[in-house]
Design brief:
Helix content: over 70%
Structural class: mainly alpha
Number of strands: 0
Distance between the termini: 36 Å
Radius of gyration: 24 Å
Largest sheet: none
Shape: elongated
């Protein structure tokens, strides 16, 4: 289960980064003012559909990412009785070297 959550986290994070890169900025800055930008009716309509789609998929990926983070937190091992180092020392084949 841990490996599945790790894969979901990595894939959703990668998709969020890619989706944000492909989205157009709401503010074109000075270059949009000088060049005229995307101010025609057809130009706005063409880019608006793709931006809405990317935005929708970004929100879905963010929700999947958040749920996977919460699930990973819930299923993590409980180390309150000792530290993780103590746990791994007991499992190692050289455990006797670490004991006092």
């Amino acid at each position: 289960m841990t490996y599945v959550l790790l894969a979901v986290l990595l894939l959703s994070a990668l998709f969020i980064v890619i989706a944000v890169i492909f989205q157009k900025s709401a503010d074109e800055g000075l270059s949009g003012t000088i060049a005229g930008g995307n101010e025609t009716f057809l130009g706005r309509e063409k880019s608006g559909g793709a931006d809405k789609l990317w935005f929708k998929w970004t929100v879905i990926a963010a929700i999947v990412f958040a749920v996977a983070v919460i699930a990973a937190y819930v299923i993590q091992p409980d180390y309150t009785s000792g530290s993780a180092v103590d746990y791994w020392k007991n499992l190692s084949e050289f455990g006797d070297l670490f004991k006092k």
